[in-house]
């Protein structure tokens, strides 16, 4: 009798252990599915890899990209499956938006730039001034900038604040007046495409150069919030450097 009770108790404990393990597995699976849904449909984390968007975005900024801002294309999904063409639930981006998109010559690569030209727009840069449809974008000197990482040139770089006709305003850098990107031909943006430029105007591979016009299908989303930022070329894994290199003033900063 005692042996039977003992066996029954062991079986019950084993069953409970298996049940508890299965519950843990289910919780993990649910959490992973939720993470996939959030990343696919809502927000995607993105790290700034270069200085092309200084002074607005800095190397070491970690931000969230709002993926439902412009609707969804195959590039919105993990591994970019060719399930459909074009965009669904599409909405038009605005001039001045900071956009993450797939690099047209190689869609495996993500780029982040500011959208300055909509379909049908005429875009040109003359003597460092941006022209949209023949009208210069308002531009005024707004102090100086100096990087805290590999892009520190040792000098203070002039900052110029631009204001689009829709009221969007942002800072740009003009490190070397008279460079090839400071005087361009006039670009006419085709239907279904956009023209992108980096805020660091003399150090940005963008639609003036090899990026070209960006198809609507290549848009991933709009940069919305900086949730973390590390200066001095600090890698995320170097936790011991966080206290001295964390950019406290950029935490949870809305991207403009």
From TrEMBL:
<keyword id="KW-0472">Membrane</keyword>
<dbReference type="InterPro" id="IPR019756">
    <property type="entry name" value="Pept_S26A_signal_pept_1_Ser-AS"/>
</dbReference>
<dbReference type="InterPro" id="IPR019757">
    <property type="entry name" value="Pept_S26A_signal_pept_1_Lys-AS"/>
</dbReference>
<keyword id="KW-0812">Transmembrane</keyword>
<protein>
    <recommendedName>
        <fullName>Signal peptidase I</fullName>
        <ecNumber>3.4.21.89</ecNumber>
    </recommendedName>
</protein>
<dbReference type="InterPro" id="IPR036286">
    <property type="entry name" value="LexA/Signal_pep-like_sf"/>
</dbReference>
<feature type="transmembrane region" description="Helical">
    <location>
        <begin position="27"/>
        <end position="48"/>
    </location>
</feature>
<keyword id="KW-0378">Hydrolase</keyword>
<dbReference type="InterPro" id="IPR019533">
    <property type="entry name" value="Peptidase_S26"/>
</dbReference>
<keyword id="KW-1133">Transmembrane helix</keyword>
<dbReference type="GO" id="GO:0009003">
    <property type="term" value="F:signal peptidase activity"/>
</dbReference>
<comment type="similarity">
    <text>Belongs to the peptidase S26 family.</text>
</comment>
<keyword id="KW-0645">Protease</keyword>
<feature type="domain" description="Peptidase S26">
    <location>
        <begin position="22"/>
        <end position="228"/>
    </location>
</feature>
<dbReference type="InterPro" id="IPR000223">
    <property type="entry name" value="Pept_S26A_signal_pept_1"/>
</dbReference>
<dbReference type="Pfam" id="PF10502">
    <property type="entry name" value="Peptidase_S26"/>
</dbReference>
<dbReference type="InterPro" id="IPR019758">
    <property type="entry name" value="Pept_S26A_signal_pept_1_CS"/>
</dbReference>
